[in-house]
Amino acid sequence: MYIPSYKEEPFEWYKSMRTQRIVREGNSVHVFKYNDVVTVLSNHNVFSSQFRDLLGDDIKNELDSRAAPSILILDPPRHTELRGLVSSAFTPRKIESYDNYIRELAAKMIENIIEKGRCDLVSEISYPLPIMVISNMLGVPEKDLKKFKEWSDALATSLGRGPDLRTQREMSEYFLNMIDRNSNEDNLISRLSNVSIDDKKLTDQEITGFSILLLVAGNETTTNLITNALIELSNHPDIYKELVDNNKIAGDIVEETLRFRSPVQSTRRYAKYDYQINGFNIYKNDFIFLYLGSANRDEEIFKDPDNFNPFRENKRHIAFGNGIHFCLGAPLARLESRIVLEEFAKRIESFSIERLNPDDRIDSDIMYGYKRAIINVKK
Ligand code: HEM
């Protein structure tokens, strides 16, 4: 089966694949329709995220000695226990308390962009904002942020192509050193170091695994959401003008960007048992590729799906997944992106983004976005 490279737009390909619904190639099964993707994601008893079970013992031991598997790649019951422990840090109310801090950061970065007039949107705001926010939440000092950029780039590229052992090792060592069981500081790593389930504390490897997940799951994704939203607004000056007049539509623009240019285009599961998805046979140990970016353009679910329309009624996209692994950071990603758009529209009357080319795209089979986008602003 032809699969477009990361340098190509996948949306026309998805459209033709949706006419076939589900395609098998050996033991790989590719799922393109919204309802089928939701069926798989919501059925975690059959469709497992626990891919480590399939790895050879050597690689498994090497990985496990440093960072335990994160919730993203665990099934219940361990998934339920660990997610329960960390979810209290990510409730919408808790996240809202970061509003002022994020707003001040965003305002400063946007002032900088205005000062420069022409610059790279990604390195001025889309990249640094989410990483500064998550580092602040985790308790990581600002001086280490540069290292994080290298790690997060390397991991975004390796996602879906097998583990990048060197980067995993460096990150694990970094976080292992940060664990302080006696700290009473109010940050996520301290909280994770001291929290317990049934009187058992998280192991160092579990804390490390979770910290790495937050860094990986939370950065590149939100970076791409911010960039993709501003690119779409530069393609639709009329909608940007509406935003300048009424910043209450910022949330709608964020939701439509999530649907229209989903930062995570696909995810995976493997089948633990034989099963049928809507009449299509799935066999034990099949790999299931779920195209969220295609589901979000499914013409049977979304009217006029190839049209960027923040005012559409149906906002039930699955850009954050579905079921028990639904993105824990969704409230944070939404808040950060909404604030950027609001603060942008407050200060910038109009802007344009220079023509993007395939080499500007991030090198990933899973993430959709750009590593640079040159913006020109008018105050
Ligand atoms: C899970 C997307 C931002 C933390 C997921 C999943 C998706 C996703 C699709 C589910 C994957 C699956 O089921 O296989 C996104 C997008 C984001 C974003 C599009 C930004 C636009 C964030 C942020 C954080 C975060 C900011 C945290 C700081 C997580 C975690 C999980 C997850 C911890 C695993 C949840 C679980 O397994 O129970 N995300 N994410 N994400 N995300 Fe996000």
Polypeptide structure, described:
The structure is a single chain. It contains 16 helices and 12 strands. Helix 6 crosses helix 16 and helix 10 (165-178) crosses helix 12. It is globular. The mean pLDDT is 92. The N and C termini lie far apart (48 Å). It has helices spanning 11-18, 34-41, 57-64, 78-87, 92-96, 99-116, 121-126, 128-138, 145-158, 165-178, 188-194, 204-235, 237-245, 250-260, 292-295, 330-347, and strands at 22-25, 28-31, 47-48, 118-120, 196-197, 200-201, 266-271, 275-277, 280-282, 287-291, 350-353, 374-378. The chain has one domain (11-378): Cytochrome p450. It is of the alpha+beta class and 379 residues long. The strands form 4 sheets. It has a 5-stranded mixed sheet with strand order 1-2-10-7-3, sandwiched between helices. Protoporphyrin IX containing FE (HEM) is lined by residues 71-72, 83, 134, 213-214, 217-218, 221-222, 225, 263-264, 267, 319-321, 325, 327-329, 332-333.
List keywords for this structure.
16 helices; alpha+beta; binds protoporphyrin IX containing FE; 12 strands
SSE layout and pairing:
Elements: H1 11-18, E1 22-25, E2 28-31, H2 34-41, E3 47-48, H3 57-64, H4 78-87, H5 92-96, H6 99-116, E4 118-120, H7 121-126, H8 128-138, H9 145-158, H10 165-178, H11 188-194, E5 196-197, E6 200-201, H12 204-235, H13 237-245, H14 250-260, E7 266-271, E8 275-277, E9 280-282, E10 287-291, H15 292-295, H16 330-347, E11 350-353, E12 374-378
Parallel strand pairs: 2-10
Antiparallel strand pairs: 1-2, 3-7, 4-12, 5-6, 7-10, 8-9, 11-12
Helix pairs in contact: 6-16, 8-12, 9-10, 9-12, 10-12, 12-14, 12-16, 13-16, 14-16
This protein binds protoporphyrin IX containing FE.
Protoporphyrin IX containing FE binds at residues 71-72, 83, 134, 213-214, 217-218, 221-222, 225, 263-264, 267, 319-321, 325, 327-329, 332-333.
